[in-house]
TrEMBL record:
It comes from Solirubrobacter phytolaccae. This is Tetratricopeptide repeat protein. Keywords: TPR repeat. Residues 32-41 have a biased composition (Polar residues). Transmembrane segments: none annotated. TPR repeats lie at residues 187-220.
Length: 561
């Protein structure tokens, strides 16, 4: 049976699989420190004097751009950066161009760089420098023009990275391997090659390559987080936690403490997860953390108190909403906690308002999970299915997104063949996720592929939280194969397991699915009456979909059964 429409408990962490853009050159000016004094800082005064003495120097204007930015003088910083870029191109000053583009891109003023790239011919700016400028400003047309035919190591590495950003993972593997053949190496190349292999489901190879990257850059947390994530996807939770502990050291900062706590929570160690965050909360790291990190820590501590039943949902929701306001909605991770805490239609306006505020700070594709959840809260099955599919496509390593999309495509939309294919692709990236495996097997059954479903379930390591669902799905497969007695026995066993877990809701769901399955099964006598659906399921945040499915399959109002 499809699992109830529920969101697995996950902390608000900054963890995400990453690919890294190529480092094309390292000519950078030293950056001045920021200041909180009321008077112009000495470095800004000196930068102005340098420009006065050398008004035709690209380096002088670049230093002024950086100093003004560090002093929050946006107007002067942008003006100086524009002059530094124009002079830097004329004087072919790499450090000046690098500083100017970095400042302009940080303010989102990429049009200045676009104009510079368009007004200067290809011969005016060396290809590697031109490529870096295009990457910094996301000028995809220029990137394509530069790397499409070039065969230099830099071009091949960049082409591989561009292929990753566009979801062309086999192309990325080809280009990155070609770059290695020309002598290119380094942790960034290996990190991206590992990412591309994981994206096509070659997790063992991804782990091997990412370990090589970690050996070259043992303190690179992006590489270590990828490695831990790939290990977790294969079900190697201890190895994943060990890798996070290695890079975190004895005193993890807030970012790594959040990631470690999330891994521990997934492994069923909620108490240990809380201890990790509480230690950071009382450490020196807390005193020096910025507002966003502090807010994330406070929100996660509240979430763990709720998940361990030491605080009710309403109080936890209030803490999370305060944390979002405190960081001015800069943390999307905090926003995602709302997927566990906002449940009922009367709370939908609160969720919609928070999504609107987050939308001012974050790209639309990063909000798909929250828009999906808003549709769920509104009990809009069709919209929820559309958002879940978009979320799964956008976040390819997120097995929760894929599991929910499969669930909704199958039960809400009646598109089991499409759901089954989505699941089989997702399983290659997360073969140890029991929820994903169960939902895919369920979709295979309804797509007329019960034998494949049986094989998939047989390969699954049974997780306590999915034992009932997996047993019921296996029973469905037996019924669809014509093994009526075996299938009915399997459903009864699923009901027994639910009783042993003290889950009358799951027991009722297994009974309902058995009755529906008997109506579908070839050669099985349909002598079962459809059980009465509990009235409260219509408003339940996790079981309302059952009512929707019964109406769709039997063309009746579920409340009449």
């Amino acid at each position: 049976m499809n699992s109830a429409l529920d969101i697995p408990e996950q902390l608000a962490t900054p963890f995400a699989f990453r690919a890294t853009g190529p480092t094309l050159f390292g000519s950078e000016l030293p950056r001045p420190n920021n200041t909180e004094q009321n008077q112009p800082p000495s470095h800004l005064v000196e930068a102005r004097r340098l420009v006065d003495r050398h008004p035709d120097s690209a380096i002088a204007w670049a230093r002024l751009a950086q100093s003004a930015q560090a002093s929050a003088d946006i107007e002067q910083s942008l003006d100086a950066a524009g002059k530094a870029l124009a002079m830097g191109i004329s004087q072919l000053s790499r450090p000046a161009i690098h500083a100017a583009v970095t400042v302009l891109a940080s303010y989102g003023r990429t049009e200045t760089v676009f104009q510079a790239l368009q007004s200067h011919g290809a011969n005016s700016i060396p290809n590697d420098l031109r490529l870096w400028m295009a990457i910094e400003t996301k000028d995809e047309t220029c990137i394509e023009q530069i790397v499409s035919e070039a065969q230099s190591p830099t071009a091949l590495v960049t082409r591989g990275w561009v292929a990753i950003t566009r979801g062309r993972y086999q192309d990325a593997i080809r280009d990155l391997r070609a770059a290695q053949a020309t002598g290119a190496t380094g942790p960034g190349l290996l990190m991206n090659l590992g990412y591309a292999h994981a994206a096509v489901g070659n997790l063992e190879k991804a782990i091997k390559i990412t370990r090589q990257a970690a050996a070259l850059a043992p303190n690179d947390r992006g590489i270590s987080l990828n490695l831990a994530g790939f290990q977790r996807a294969l079900g190697h939770h201890e190895a994943a936690v060990d890798e996070i502990r290695r890079v975190a050291g004895a005193r993890p900062d807030i970012e790594l403490a959040l990631v470690l706590a999330d891994f521990l929570l997934e492994a069923g160690e909620a108490g240990k997860a809380h201890d990790v965050l509480q230690r950071v909360r009382t450490s020196r790291e807390w005193a020096h953390a910025d507002r966003t990190r502090r807010s994330e820590l406070e929100a996660n501590l509240a979430f763990l108190r709720w998940s361990t039943r030491r605080q009710d949902r309403t109080a936890t929701l209030a803490v999370v909403l305060r944390a979002l306001a405190s960081c001015e909605h800069s943390s999307l991770a905090i926003g995602n906690l709302l997927m566990n805490l906002v449940r009922d239609p009367p709370e939908a306006p609160v969720l919609a308002a928070e999504i609107a505020r987050l939308a001012t700070k974050h790209p639309e594709d990063s909000l798909l999970s929250l828009r999906f959840h808003h549709a769920v809260v509104m009990r809009d099955a069709h919209a929820a299915a559309a958002y879940a599919c978009a979320w799964a496509e956008s976040d390819i390593f997120n097995s929760t997104a894929a599991s929910l999309a499969i669930h909704l495509l199958t039960d809400a939309e009646g598109r089991a063949p499409e759901a089954a294919e989505l699941g089989l692709k997702a399983i290659r990236r997360a073969p140890a996720d029991p929820l994903l495996l169960n939902n895919t097997a369920y979709a295979l059954c309804l797509a007329g592929r019960p034998a494949e479903a049986k094989r998939l379930i047989a390969s699954t390591k049974t997780a306590a939280g999915q034992r009932v669902a997996l047993r019921a799905t296996e029973a469905l497969a037996d019924l669809m194969l014509g093994n009526c007695e075996q299938g009915q026995a399997g459903y009864r066993e699923a009901q027994r397991l639910a009783r042993e877990q003290g889950r009358p809701d799951l027991e009722a769901l297994a009974a309902l699915n058995m009755a529906l399955a008997m109506r579908r099964a070839p050669g099985c006598k349909d002598e079962m009456e459809l059980p009465t659906i509990p009235e409260q399921w219509k408003e339940s945040p996790t079981f309302w979909m059952v009512s929707h499915r019964v109406r769709r399959e039997l063309d009746v109002d579920s409340g009449e059964r």
